[in-house]
């Protein structure tokens, strides 16, 4: 695999897209966001929820594989939902997208030196050395992550815990969601 | 000055602040505190339906006819789940319904308590917004917000779920907080000048332009703007199912309804058009047929309040997001006057004449003409779903704005009778006819009791052919005439009407038609008229499912084989 090799979602031949949604920090709006994805039956590769850019919001990251048109329609639908402040999409290959994986590999035994070279080359971090496994942290762009995992594969990967890719939305892109006038008066 | 009141009393006051006059509902355990308070607020008229589904449809009919939110109320559990079909209907057709449901007390939430359902979870995909009120202190704000959301932007249903103990909770009431409505930026947005100029240029240069108008025109009250645009350009006007009555059918520029049961000349016009100006419609699959072959030569100019609809189903040359009235007005200001004589002549050559299918001289066209004439053209027609819905859409000569109401997106059988109750209460001075098939009528005919108790003079027409007619037609055309589960028995509707204490009429022959319609119309209360129509009459033309608009079926398979 080369650095220029594009990521593809398994079995689709399409590069995954990263959807970013900033939504009110409440279960009902969050449920609506997930429902919008679910009803379109789009293959969901990864999903994560974390603190949002403004108080009372969360950021949702969804790594999806679907046609560009389907993704575009989904984003436009998400923008309509009550409680959604921002929705956008980008390629997971964009320069500012990052992802993290924790990898359990078989202890290297006599191949320890080779494994150390890979750990250094891919800037991995050794988190724990257990009797039956070595726990590594791999972070970077989704492409870097893939390459790191491929490099580790010959040593025997036992398990991978992988986050969704994350990225900031465009600067200044997050607007207040729907605000009834009786509340808006209080803000002015 | 403040006073201590219950959450239930507060809810009544907030409804009054929202100028709610009528509420459709059905009491039960978890909503009893609100019903207890209701008697103290006589300005809120409560209509006791016979099934909660009817409450939701009636609120929907009220909203569509009045342009204001329709309100329905139900208890928790089965009461709430019975609202589901009505909420889905309102959601698909962008109708501002506010549904209020009682819920089990807060400490019992999630305990599988008696009549507990997660109604918010159940209705998430079919509502625009949902609220669980967790404290009486937030009730007023949440309810005002719900009304604002239901009516702002693209309207839609909102559900407010209120636990019983919140309804009983005491709260200091500080006086009216006002239902000042939403900041609705979407309604004031005007597209960029360049986009409007490009749309005007396309219209000016087109040889075969069309104007297609949908429900958005009715919602935006854009009748005059659409008519002026048509008259300035000479563009033939096509009205979608939910756009019917947004443009007078007697107007010389009116062409008809498109899509699966659209007339051949309308669909052919779409297929050869080079520009289509679409206002307030979403290019539903029943309108477009096979998308890959829809309007293959046309540049589409799409005006819609909902930006997500622009380009969703068909590619557009120019997207003009915004309120139909405002954007059409802006387009009018830049469009050049023109006419389309050659194009009209071409469309005329597409027209087909078709004979009605008779039984006792009764035709759908004749029945509809009689109803129209009897009401002097003032009636609002609320149709159900099926063959009669298509006949009503194609043959009733609508003249008045927003005089045709039907379940378009969801296609809900059983809609017409309860929705017509809401329409009457929204516009009591105008006659209302609920037109159903014998299948759909039997789904909600229990609401005759509501009409009698509440004195609602809705006129109910039943097109009785002894079949679930549209399904039967599909079985005839596409399933080798295997009429599986479509023959349907009916009670004696005249006796049924008598049992409810109202007048019932049966029309078996055209010579009985005018008198029956006249007598039903003259009855001071509700009445039922059953029309025994040809059993295997079909709706023609028909674009087969998945077919393109160029592939109309114009006769039944048997007739085609004989020919």
How would you describe this structure in keywords?
heterodimer, A: 188 residues, alpha+beta, four-stranded antiparallel sheet, 28% helix, B: 563 residues, six-stranded parallel sheet, 25 helices
Largest sheet descriptor of chain A: 4 strands, antiparallel
Radius of gyration of chain A: 20 Å
Percentage of residues in DSSP E strands of chain B: 15-25%
Oligomer: heterodimer
Radius of gyration of chain B: 24 Å
Spans of chain B with pLDDT under 50 lasting ≥5 residues?
Answer: none
The major β-sheet of chain B equals: 6 strands, parallel
Proportion of residues in helical segments of chain A: 25-40%
Number of strands of chain A: 8
Number of strands of chain B: 20
Largest interface: A-B, 19 and 27 residues
Apparent shape of chain B: globular
Shape of chain A: elongated
Report the average pLDDT across residues of chain B: 95
Uncertain residue segments of chain A:
1-6, 178-188
Termini separation of chain B comes to 83 Å
Tell me the span between the first and last alpha carbons of chain A. 56 Å
- Quickly give the structural class of chain A: alpha+beta
Strand arrangement, major sheet of chain B: 3-2-4-5-7-6
The count of helical stretches of chain A stands at: 5
What level of helicity do the residues of chain B show?
Answer: 25-40%
